[in-house]
Automatic annotation (TrEMBL):
Cellular compartments per GO CC: cytosol
Name the record gives this protein: Peptide chain release factor 3
Gene name, Swiss-Prot/TrEMBL: prfC
Subcellular location: Cytoplasm
Keyword set includes Nucleotide-binding: yes
Purpose: Increases the formation of ribosomal termination complexes and stimulates activities of RF-1 and RF-2. It binds guanine nucleotides and has strong preference for UGA stop codons. It may interact directly with the ribosome. The stimulation of RF-1 and RF-2 is significantly reduced by GTP and GDP, but not by GMP.
Organism, as annotated: Erythrobacter longus
Protein family per UniProt: Belongs to the TRAFAC class translation factor GTPase superfamily. Classic translation factor GTPase family. PrfC subfamily.
Organism lineage string: Bacteria, Pseudomonadati, Pseudomonadota, Alphaproteobacteria, Sphingomonadales
Gene Ontology biological-process annotations: regulation of translational termination
């Protein structure tokens, strides 16, 4: 049954409350039983999706975690995306694996740059979006100002489904348009504990605004929402539990079931005859005790059964999948079966890589999971030269995950790592130390960016003989031009019109 699957991501600017909302959705689904882990002196709360050491230190999500939970007959697959602006590449790949998204906006800040960037990725793939305006129990901007900003900046129709009764110190609850009830705060912490009032006496100004909101904005239209043209807007406070129930019910009711996925010029629907899927993420060392390596597969079609053989496009020969994993917050269960829309983890030893298609007959290639040209390039300086082998293993692992890209220069021995954002370098150094016991430093590289080279073999050989000092191989052995500046790229493009200098590489 794929119609009861909802595979979605949560996107937001850092600090908009995405991690807290994730946690509350998991609580609603029974996947966790405690709201966070309170450290000494009320130190920073951590949600179950943030497990990596650097995340715990900085309070940000830097990997995309997967959490599955069930509620009232619906299976929810929640993909928690990195919120930090430096993680656009991992986030982009995660958004290829979902059918819808929740966009979390801070009521005081509105649309922020990272929110807009992530929204544009969703728009590229026509991913429908539900908007959740968070932190309405604090002082925030006027409701109409927020709604109009979403409509104007994102070029979307907005359809409010709720309305906050006051904000900040004057917060009295949230009116749910569908039920006509106001969910009201209770107790000294003014949380929502389930009390709903049907005959709430709205202040006159609020009553007028509610009427304006219902008349002045489009009614909800399912087709427009699923086409990515309209966003229903919910208001709430993830921290105080307002609006979370309405949000999860909306995902169950209106978010699309598994959608067809592009494979070249075909669209592969969930009812396609064979089991198929694609790897959108690889994660090493989720459990440091076991040095494990999990490939995350978005199942596109068919009914997967434990033990069946699938052929990875990067390998060409079948592998038996004996221990497929479903993720329930930080807990794991062996999956006996899985359906289209599910995310399953496949333990492996470097066999599976980001972008691989898995299928029964090896006649499909899912498209749209590119590598991006790095914007920052650094040389890796090993502090203990005896650990060269461990460093190579670590860099291979991390490049397979998509955290970094590794380039091996044609001349010179030092590895060059490429990333799309500065924070990935911090993650690299942190993980080398914590997971591989390799102490390393990064130093400036003479190169500013890289381009993948393609073209006639003879022309490539000629280009290589003249430009060996500026060439490297990526971990697939593909030829890469290492450029000292954008001018350098443009000069070579003009000089070698028969060759392709590509900023992306499809796998």
């Amino acid at each position: 049954m794929t119609s009861n699957r909802r595979t979605f991501a949560i996107i937001s600017h850092p600090d908009a409350g995405k991690t807290t909302l994730t946690e509350k959705l998991l609580l609603q689904g029974g996947a966790i039983h405690l709201a966070g882990e309170v450290k000494a002196r009320g130190d920073q709360r951590r949600a179950r999706s943030d497990w990596m050491k650097i995340e715990q230190q900085r309070g940000i999500s830097v990997t995309s975690s997967v959490m599955t939970f069930e509620r009232e007959g619906v299976t929810f697959n929640l993909l928690d995306t990195p919120g930090h602006e430096d993680f656009s590449e991992d986030t982009y790949r995660t958004l290829t694996a979902v059918d819808s998204a929740i966009m979390v906006i801070d009521a005081a800040k509105g649309i922020e740059p990272q929110t807009r960037k992530l929204f544009e990725v969703c728009r590229l793939r026509s991913v429908p979006i539900i908007t959740f305006v968070n932190k309405v129990d604090r002082e925030g901007r006027p409701v109409f100002e927020l709604l109009d900003e979403i409509a104007d900046m994102l070029a979307l129709d907005v359809s409010p489904q709720m309305y906050p009764v006051g904000m900040g110190g004057e917060f009295q609850g949230i009116l749910d348009f569908a039920s006509g009830e106001v969910v009201v705060p209770e107790g000294p912490s003014r949380e929502f504990k389930g009390k709903r009032v049907a005959d709430f006496d709205l202040p006159e100004e609020i009553a007028e605004n509610v009427e304006l909101a219902q008349i002045g904005y489009p009614e909800f239209d399912l087709e427009a929402y699923r086409n990515g043209d309209l966003t229903p807007v919910y208001f709430g406070s993830a921290l105080k539990n307002f609006g979370v129930t309405e949000l999860i019910e909306a995902i169950a009711r209106i978010a699309p079931p598994p959608r067809a996925q592009p494979a070249g010029d075909k669209q592969i629907a969930p009812d396609h005859g064979e089991v198929s899927g694609f790897i959108f993420k690889v994660q090493a060392n989720m459990d440091p005790n076991h040095r494990d390596r999990i490939a995350f597969m978005r199942q596109v079609s068919g009914t997967f059964k434990r033990g069946m053989k699938l052929i990875p496009s990067g390998l060409g020969k079948p592998i038996a999948i004996h221990s497929p994993i479903l993720f329930f917050a930080q807990d794991r269960e062996i999956a006996d079966t899985a359906e289209a829309g599910d995310i399953i983890g496949i333990p492996n030893h470097g066999t599976l890589r980001v972008g691989d298609t898995l299928s029964e007959k090896n006649q499909l290639r899912f498209t749209g999971l590119p590598n991006f040209a790095p914007e920052i390039l650094r040389r890796v300086q090993l502090k203990d030269p005896t650990k060269t082998k461990q460093l190579r293993k670590a860099l291979d692992d991390l490049s397979e995950e998509g955290v970094i890209q590794v380039f091996y220069p044609e001349i010179g021995a030092q590895h060059i790592v490429g990333v799309v954002g500065q924070l990935q370098l911090d993650v690299l150094i942190s993980r080398l130390s914590a997971e591989y016991k390799v102490e390393a430093a990064l130093e400036a590289s003479p190169f500013a960016t890289a381009r993948w080279l393609k073209g006639d073999a003879k022309l490539l050989d000629e280009f290589e003989s003249f430009n060996r000092a500026n060439l490297a191989r990526d971990r697939d052995g593909d030829l890469v031009f290492m450029a000292k500046s954008p001018w350098d790229v443009n000069y070579q493009v003009e000089k070698n019109p028969e060759l392709s200098f590509s900023a992306t590489k499809e796998r």
